[in-house]
Amino acid sequence: MRAERTLDQKRTEPTRSPWKIATRALDRFGVSPLGFGCFALIAILPLIPPFNQEHIVRWLVMGALLGAQAVAFDFTGGYINVVNFGFASIVGLGAYTSTILSHTEPMIVIHPGMPPWLTIWIAAFVCGLIGFLLGALTLRLRGIYAAVMAWFFGLALLGLARNQTSLTRGTLGINPRPLLDTNSNVPYYYVILAMLALTYICLRLVTKSKYGLAFRCIGANMDAAEASGIDPTRYRIVNFTLSCFFAGLLGGFYAHYIGILTPDTAMSTNSTVEVLSLSYIGGRSSLWGGIAAAFPFVILTEALRSSLDELPGIQMVVYGALMILVMIFYPSGLAGFYRAQVDKIRQWFTKS
């Protein structure tokens, strides 16, 4: 009888299609089928003309790098509502840490000559530790004060990078060792794509956990979250630490890819504004919105900058104009626009 019942149950159970199985597997990592398809498309872009040209591949590398930074930035700004104005300095700290630890020439005081593949992870842990300490000091504050304190800390790091010439060589610049033994940009592109995927999946899994629920509660109403038994300071520190960890990892890649570091390029406030703009244009608390915005806007701004040499800083004008348009017409950004269109399509199919 039991065998007959089991057989009947198997017959009545609906068979799962391969599409549903694949969709559920992707959903566990916070990836939709459309998102996976878009990622596969950008992965093969360097193989398709005209994107196979070296200067365009370099633009794609910077697009992936800025997209990954936008994910780490949105993890803090979009979920716990703390805008890290010192984000670029944390990225620069990771870049300098990895550069110094991997340096082999005696032009700086410390030059242990460690492998760059190891030092970028050490840089990530150093930035995560700094993020933890900074968060413990500043994230007890509310409102704009935490953001201002992060900005002041970033300015302090910038000043140290300029003045500690025995370590950073100051404004003269320091040359990091290359991460790969190649002159082509294509291998670097796939390395940063892997880092982009790692950053997104790790932070998405966190947002799908109980920590993500606490982050949303804190970002929506800190007093209500505290009344519900959530410790805002603790969860904000965890969030800030993870964001700084991945900022340091991406900073290590940037150093060994770009080939030269100066304080004004590695820790510029303009870089923070650029990442902030991508995060807001893409849509706050979406994580993937910054990635979707990064690639087209980096290609657009780089094309404008290469064709309009007499207008330096044109990319900041473009980002500012797009920020204004998004805030006026669609405050939820590209992610909100996408969700609205999906809802309209579902309603249309339901009515049909």
Question: Would you kindly provide a written description of the structure presented here, covering whatever features stand out?
Answer:
The protein has 352 residues and is mostly helical. Helix 4 crosses helix 14, helix 9 runs antiparallel to helix 12 and helix 14 (269-282) packs across helix 15. 74% of the residues lie in helices and 0% in strands. The chain has a domain at 45-268. The protein has helices spanning 2-12, 18-28, 33-44, 54-77, 87-102, 116-138, 144-163, 165-168, 186-207, 210-220, 222-227, 232-258, 263-266, 269-282, 288-307, 314-329, 333-351. The chain is built from 17 helices and no strands. The longest helix is centred in the last third of the chain and has 27 residues, at 232-258. The mean pLDDT is 87.
Silhouette: globular
Which spans of ≥5 residues are poorly predicted at pLDDT below 50? none
Separation, N- and C-terminal Cα atoms? 45 Å
Q: H/E order of the elements?
A: HHHHHHHHHHHHHHHHH
The largest β sheet comes out as: none
Q: How much strand? A: under 5%
**Radius of gyration, rounded?**
22 Å
Mean pLDDT equals 87
Q: What is the overall number of helices?
A: 17
Alpha-beta content class: mainly alpha
Per-chain topology:
Elements: H1 2-12, H2 18-28, H3 33-44, H4 54-77, H5 87-102, H6 116-138, H7 144-163, H8 165-168, H9 186-207, H10 210-220, H11 222-227, H12 232-258, H13 263-266, H14 269-282, H15 288-307, H16 314-329, H17 333-351
Give the tags.
single chain, about 350 residues, mainly alpha, globular
